[in-house]
Amino acid sequence: MTPVLPPTAPGPVEPPHDWSTLGMLTLPPAGPDLVRFVRDEVTAGRCTRARQDDAQTVLVVPLAIRISADGHADSVVPLAIGCPTVEQFSAGAAQRMVRHLAHRTMIPGGRWYRTVITYTWPG
Predict the structure, then answer these.
(1) CA distances from 29 to 10, 59, 111 (A)
(2) Across residues 79-91, what is the average pLDDT?
(3) Is 64 among the domain residues?
(4) Would you say residue 11 has pLDDT above 90?
(5) Which domain holds residue 100?
(6) H or E stretch including 45?
């Protein structure tokens, strides 16, 4: 007779309050289409968090991503930076980025990770 094992308890549904305890997940750079949307939000005045230096404008969106056992992004939680449209857009972008990671099935699942998407454009 084969013993029946209880199901493994799922990881927490919400990320911890202190994201510094989470492992880091590196995503690919934001492509031109992603940058264009964010740049347009900044230009329209709907997001004032972007920072300019001598040659470029930069907006960084921190995210917590819960990776499932099969390597999918179950949940993506953006850190509130005062730009709701960019936060939600970034959450969707991160989910797509994880889906296309070549090594996603090698990422230990059932846990939360932290990452950032950095949008950079001239000016």
Answers:
(1) 30, 13, 23
(2) 97
(3) yes
(4) no
(5) 19-122
(6) none
CA 75, distance to chain mean position in Å, is 9
Compute and round to an integer the Cα radius of gyration of the chain.
17
**Six token digits for residue 97:** 């980025």
Average pLDDT, whole number, for the chain? 91
Q: What is the C-alpha separation between 22 and 28, in angstroms, rounded?
A: 19
Nearest-CA neighbor of 60 among 1, 119, 122? Answer: 119
Whole-model pTM: value is 0.87
Per-residue tokens: 108: 């230990």
CB 60, CB 66: distance < 8 Å: no
The two tokens of residue 114 are 């932290």
When divided into structural domains, the chain yields a total of 1
- The DSSP 8-state label assigned to residue 100 in this structure reads T
Token representation of residue 119: 């949008």
| Within a domain: 45 | yes
Q: Is residue 13 part of a domain?
A: no
In a domain, 63, yes or no: yes
